[in-house]
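Q: What does the assembly look like in three dimensions?
Context provided by user:
Components: three
Sequences:
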Amino acid sequence: MPEQTLAETWGLAPAVLGVVVVGLFLGLVVAGIDRAVVSGAPGSAVEPVRSSARLLVEQRRITLAPDRLLWRLGCAAVPILALLSLAVVPIGGRTLWSTSADLVWFNAMEALLWAAVWLVGWGPNAFHALTGGYRFLAQGLAYELPLMFALITAGLAAGSLRTTDVLAAQQDLWLVVTMPVAFLVFVAGAAAFAFWGPLAAPAAVDIAGGVTSELSGVDRLLVQAGRAVFLGASAAMAAALFLGGDAGPWLPGPVWHLLKTLAVVAALVWVGRRLPVLRPDRTVEVGWMVLVPLTLVQALVVAVLVQEGFYA
Amino acid sequence: MSAEIVLQIVLTVAAGLIGVGLFGALSQQSIVMVMMGLELVLGGVLLAGGAAWYFLAPELPDAQVLVVVALVVMAVEMAMGFAVTIAIYRARQVDMVDMATDLRG
Amino acid sequence: MLTDVSGWAMATVVVLGVLAVAAGVAVFVVDSMARATFALLGSFLAVAGVLVAFDLVYLAVVTALMMTIEMAIMAVFMIAFMMNPAGLMPMTMVHNTKGSAVVGAGAFVVLTAGIWTVDWPARSGQLPADSTRQLGEAIMGSHMLVMLGIGIALFATILAGTVLATARGRYDRFGADLTAARPDDPVPGGLPR
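A: Here is the predicted structure of the complete assembly.
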């Protein structure tokens, strides 16, 4: 039987507010750690707060004949989808919304992110932005299936697509022990969907910032915040699905989950910022030819383990 | 409100999607737009299948399986549609259904 | 809940239904191909919302997932194959509008007449505790033949789609006598081959 959701415990409005606050906090943490690592000065971790405030008051630049409706829609959708994907991530052992298909929900939000990012590229009626949008589609297409298999593998071991059930299945053993490939692919896929680090080709310098090239003011803030929140939400999801979530000695559960999330973020930034931005034609085939078979084999191994009663 | 009326309203919406989709599929000249019309028709099928499951026989999984089949039909239609569009454009520079006359008797 | 539907759920379903049809109409009304594609996506998301209200969360989420990916790819094709992708120069590309409208409206009228005159049976049985589990056990158990058929159909689609869409065969890639050590691809994929 499903446990209580956050919405049932706190009431709908406070729970939604709580999740939004957690999401913004995670986004700021990701952006702060990222900035500190890139600049090498720990003090610059507050820079995202400062630049957010500046972007809030900055005036919008207008391009010639933009598709305003779709552009605004895409910009607003990016952070909203990032927050919606957080709705099925357990916070303190509970999710905002618990369904029998949480993992697919998380994946669907990523898929909707495709559409949103493509719209951000399409909207301004500009060459570089649209190029970035197309690059994102190619990247998303290549990394969608591995990510899907990685998510499903965790659900397979727990025998449920509900995140809280996956959490409950890890009281004895973290799932990452038996599915390291799925964990790594999930984190890499998250980076690909937030077009961040080595997979930032859709927003790369060679196309003048790609999808973000024509963004200014609130629009830029929304998209950048959405990317950061999405990375933070994915790190929290990775900690919950593969690293045992809030399981741990001495400290209370939520602190453990936060610590694991921060560890994933730190590892992601530490590794990701050491790699150059990879050209899409050097990463797309890796997704199709290497990661898809690898995650399938991983799922097979987990399925055999389930059959042997390993997770029971 | 009684469940029967809700079922009828939802099915009417599904019929609306099917009607609009049929109109689009028959009236559009571009192959891609024809596919969008067919997708709308299948969207109506999805809706009707879900409503049938919820209001008529939630004990049986058959309506859910029907929705899955409709989803797969959509995927196949889309994939084959794109493939045929590319193939016919490559061979004949045709992107409109009126110009695709190879199979005209 | 068994015989009556709460007013709140009812209102949601009606609003989403109207949205689905309105977005469906918009697909064939707007000039911009990008807008048409995303109107269709909006229609599907509204359908997914109705499915959530019917406790079919898995099917709803899968619908949203699949349709979003399809529409994102659809947008690329719309822009590649339509003469007026952004709708900056309005034009119509339709044929036989009247006949199509008659067929569409006729289908709607016939279906609606049936829907409102048929004596619908009462609901048999209870909602399952977990509709996702019900579906999963059906396609892996009693309805496995459906899943087998789907699997083969999708596999055949992958092969046929690739064969139709690609213009390059192995002779283009490996030379006339298939002896080239490395394939001659216009775009390298990233793997050392």
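Follow-up: The two ends of chain A are 17 Å apart (CA to CA).
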